[in-house]
Amino acid sequence: MRFLSRRLVMPNDLNFAGSLFGGRILEWIDEEAYIFASCQLDAKSLVTKHIGAISFEASAFQGDVVEFGLAIKSVGRTSLTVTCVVRNKGTKQNICVADDIVFVHIDAESRSSTPHGKTKAELDSIKLEAPE
Q1: Where are the annotated segments for Disordered (predicted)?
Q2: What is the CATH number of the domain that holds 108?
Q3: Are the beta carbons of 12 and 21 closer than 8 angstroms?
Q4: What is the per-residue pLDDT across 81-96, written as a single tens digit (0 to 9) for each?
Q5: Domain region containing 20
Q6: Structural domain count, the chain
Q7: 9 with 20: CB under 8 angstroms?
Q8: Is residue 12 domain-resident?
């Protein structure tokens, strides 16, 4: 799994207990997973169809840097399924795991699903640049 981006936990990201709000982390996961999927497919016309199991494993607090690891789980004719792990950059402890995030490639005008033309083998061979 490649950890491709990072975010700083700011005061407006916290819940009443002073830890990272679950809704904020889900928003970030959806955005990061979309960016990953659209870069893999070289397509912008993707929609989130499904997010499967979500497991919150640890807390993050103001000032923590969290990083997002993403990997392709499966490739369909019109879809791409990814997994996302969010972890604390300093401790490497997993904060949240979101499995089975399904994106569907759509026609920009008709909004109906359309083949994206990629295979898992093609996508697995893509070399990604990760931040240092």
Answers
A1: 111-132
A2: 3.10.129.10
A3: no
A4: 999 999 999 999 999 9
A5: 2-124
A6: 1
A7: yes
A8: yes
